[in-house]
TrEMBL record:
Domain (Amidohydrolase) ranges: 40-376
SUPFAM superfamilies: Composite domain of metallo-dependent hydrolases, Metallo-dependent hydrolases
Pfam families: Amidohydro_3
Keywords: Hydrolase, Metal-binding
Listed GO MF terms: deaminase activity; hydrolase activity, acting on carbon-nitrogen (but not peptide) bonds, in cyclic amidines; metal ion binding
Protein name: Amidohydrolase family protein
InterPro entries in the cross-refs: Amidohydro_3, Metal-dep_hydrolase_composite, Metal_Hydrolase, Metallo-hydrolase_Enzymes
């Protein structure tokens, strides 16, 4: 007898149902045979998947929309200005409460691995202290990686250089830079060089916010790739956004994509926020606000899709449902074929797990930790279209959340005014 059994799940692209047996927190059986457990649940034919991986979000700014905060222009620059004012009044309790709520929003949509950037431009590092506490409190149900992110730059705000070191010594998992927001290109390059030097010194990975601007002259992605190779950090560096890549002339873009592949960079696209904040200054035709997802994927680059902000001055919407980001991403990237849907699923799961360092313990295989979700739907097209919440969410063999699938009751009024019911 197993510790737990989840009956009647379907693996992706398979019609038959199987039963999952869990022992000591790991997958112990995946079989069509009847099995028994001390605890049992029926998944009613829902699809079983590994948990989703959110590769880029902000838990310090999350849920700050409202409170007289309104980004009137919708631009990234006004959002940064609003946040600059707001962060002066942060308290640890405030950040802990908002971050915990946002993480629960992500979790109920199947995310159990989260990489969050925290702004270290605050001299008190209030948000960082808060998120380190959140990471500790939620460790049993979710894995949280924290990026030390210098929103105001490393050269334009030289105090952030010391804060980056302090953040790492306090427990941040990764270091970052934002080269396109430095005052000059030269300072942008210097910020990347400093970021990589700290990563090497403290044996941390790098996650850069790169070229998040509608400017074909913003060319820091090639610098990130070059520094990765020079520092022998292939496979340990991530670049988010890379919007400018979409504006490059084709020969140069293809050269950069090949360099990105050589450096084994992970590229994270954030379709929800970037479809909103990018293109604001363009005349028509306006840019789509997204990097070259399909070109990068086709070239063999590890591409991820992330939800990013949840109700902030940067992006005033968002429910934590990473399937919304996948849905927006496949539209903007023109990835609507059957093979494309498989690729999009990889971008919110296995590709993120690779960058997260999870691959040996990620996936639904006997012997691996029983971390998985079940979700209503016939196939990946159905799941991405309807974007349902997960029916079951398991972490190390323990059920941590469940949601009853939505069900609509239809009512028909007959000629004699009697009501008959039908449900779907």
């Amino acid at each position: 007898m197993f510790n737990s059994v989840v009956k009647n799940v379907r693996r992706l692209n398979e019609d038959k149902t199987v039963n999952i047996g869990i022992a000591n927190g790991c997958f112990a059986a995946i079989t069509t045979a009847s099995i028994q457990g001390e605890k049992e649940w029926d998944a009613h034919g829902h699809i079983v998947l590994p948990p989703f991986v959110e590769m880029h979000t902000h838990l310090d700014t999350t849920l700050t929309i409202g409170n007289q905060v309104n980004n009137k222009t919708g631009t990234l620059f006004e959002a940064i200005s609003i946040w600059h004012e707001r962060k002066q009044y942060l308290s640890e309790e405030d950040v802990i409460n908002r971050a915990t709520k946002a993480l629960h929003m992500l979790m109920e949509h199947g995310v159990l691995y989260v990489r969050a950037a925290v702004d270290i431009s605050d001299p008190h590092l209030t948000a960082l202290k808060a998120l380190l506490e959140v990471r500790k409190r939620m460790a049993e149900v979710l894995e949280l990686q924290i990026i030390a992110f210098p929103q105001d730059g490393l050269m334009s705000c030289e105090e952030n250089q010391a804060r980056l070191i302090e953040a790492v010594e306090m427990g941040a998992d990764a270091v970052s830079a934002v080269p396109h927001l430095e005052r000059t290109r030269e300072q942008g390059i210097a910020s990347l060089e400093y970021c990589f030097s700290i990563a090497k010194q403290y044996d941390k990975f790098v996650h850069v916010f790169c070229d998040e601007i509608d400017d074909d002259q913003s060319r820091f992605l090639e610098v990130v790739a070059d520094l990765t190779i020079k520092n022998n950090m292939e496979g340990s560096v991530t670049a988010s956004h890379a919007i400018a890549l979409a504006y490059y002339n084709e020969p140069y873009a293809q050269k950069v994509i090949q360099l990105v592949k050589q450096a084994e960079l992970t590229i994270v696209a954030c379709p929800l926020i970037n479809s909103v904040v990018q293109g604001r200054l363009d005349r028509f035709p306006k840019g789509r606000g997204i990097t070259r997802i399909k070109d990068l994927y086709t070239a063999g680059v590890n591409v991820c899709i992330a939800h990013d902000d949840i109700r902030t001055p940067f992006y005033p919407f968002g429910s934590g449902n990473i399937l919304q980001a996948a849905h927006m991403g496949l539209h903007l990237a023109h990835m609507t074929g059957a093979d494309d849907l498989h690729a999009i699923f990889q971008m919110i799961s296995h590709h993120g797990a690779q960058s997260f360092g999870l691959e040996e313990n990620y996936g639904i295989e006997i012997g691996k930790p029983a971390n998985f979700i079940t979700i209503p739907g016939k196939d990946m097209s159905d799941i991405i279209t309807n974007q349902p919440k997960c029916s079951f969410i398991f972490r190390n063999g323990n059920l941590i959340a469940s949601t009853e699938p939505e069900k609509t009751q239809w009512h028909t009024v007959s000629t004699n005014n009697k009501v008959s019911g039908a449900s779907t």
